[in-house]
Amino acid sequence: MILELRGVHRTHGTGETAVHALRGVDLGVAAGELVAVMGPSGSGKSTLLNLAGGLDSPSQGEVVVEGEVLGTLNRKQLARLRRRFVGYVFQDLNLLASLTAVENVALPLELDGMAVRKARKLAAAALDEVALAELAPRFPDEMSGGQQQRVAIARALVGDRRLVLADEPTGALDSQTGEAVLRLLRARVDAGAAGVLVTHEARHAAWADRVVFLRDGVVVDTTSPVGEPEQLLGVQA
Amino acid sequence: MSIRHGLLALLERGPMYGYQLRAAFEESTGATWPLNIGQVYTTLSRLERDGLVRPLPENDGGQRPYELTDLGRAEIAVWFVTPISRTDRPRDELAIKLALALTTPGVDVRAVVQTQRTATIQTLQELTRLKQRSDDPGDLSWRLILDAMVFQAEAEVRWLDHCEASLVRYRPSAPGSAAVAPEAADDRSEARK
């Protein structure tokens, strides 16, 4: 199991004004598995993702990434684990405008102390993986929205990242480009990463192996793993 | 889907006999609508009765090809330029079911919505898996059919989301006339988090 949430609660505020964003969530994501999280606004989707990535701490319960209980790590250790193992793709891409595509992708590796040359080499490979090798020297404002999103994905996948967390990664992209982004995410997971995809689009969630439904901070339902799709043709006939 | 128009469209390519028509139909719809040979022959004889196709002499293998008549060619041309009317489709069982759930005492409508949503997304997952496997650019017809099913399922999920959001605000006017889960009032305040 690459990611495990065990009995996780997250409460914001105290007393009468307390908001229970998550109330006893258990979730495990194995290598090679993509789990989508769906639910209405305020159901706890983004809180769950922030906890999984160590950007927030549970009020109760524990979050385990690659066997490390995040609550037992100090800030430095946590930052290191995040940089090494966890990749994030957000709707707002957070690309640095003053860096080229390859520099943006190499940044987390360089921050982690990797030699610049090696980091750039891995970054170039990651860009190649998202079919953007030739745009490596371009700045974000010289690329389309779809291309920028692919750079953000390359940055999330670069190096050894085994846990990919995506929050509405297709944002405002058109349906074809959005689908290309999901195919990339799917391919990375199929190659052995674990992925969590938060989305309100059913069509995007459908790329996952399992879809978890959150309501008011509680998992209310989960789709079972996808069987042989050929059965579907019989149903549709 | 009208088999009648499907067969006419295929005969536009040239004369074909029953088994060829069945194979061509399944190929062009990605086997989404399997036909049995009996349906093909029944449809062909109706088309012949209506003057839309005519049989040709049997070939050496004893198979009888059919070809389009001018009337048939005109019929298929009209079909392609006429939009499919939504009112021609069967009644939407799901909408009726939810409407009834809302007015049937003791039914947890949110559970009905969620059960359907899980099932529909499961279908979407299976369709997406099929799409993932069909990367051949030559499979465009097949992928477009899959996309049609994907978008229809997606529309259903959106409608279910809309139903759920409406239920949170719903207060039945007559006692016992609806069955929204009692925690609905609490949900509303939490949804504003």
TrEMBL record, chain A:
Key word Nucleotide-binding present: yes
Residues covered by the ABC transporter domain: 3-237
Listed GO MF terms: ATP binding
Pfam families: ABC_tran
CDD domains: ABC_MJ0796_LolCDE_FtsE (cd03255)
PROSITE patterns linked: ABC_TRANSPORTER_1 (PS00211), ABC_TRANSPORTER_2 (PS50893)
Keywords (A to Z) from UniProt: ATP-binding, Nucleotide-binding, Transport
This protein's record includes keyword Transport: yes
UniProt name for this protein: Macrolide ABC transporter ATP-binding protein
TrEMBL record, chain B:
Domain Transcription regulator PadR C-terminal: 91-167
Transcription regulator PadR N-terminal domain boundaries: 7-77
Gene3D superfamilies, per the entry: Winged helix-like DNA-binding domain superfamily/Winged helix DNA-binding domain (1.10.10.10)
Source species, domain of life: Bacteria
Cited Pfam families: PadR, Vir_act_alpha_C
The protein's name: Transcriptional regulator
Lineage: Bacteria, Bacillati, Actinomycetota, Actinomycetes, Micromonosporales
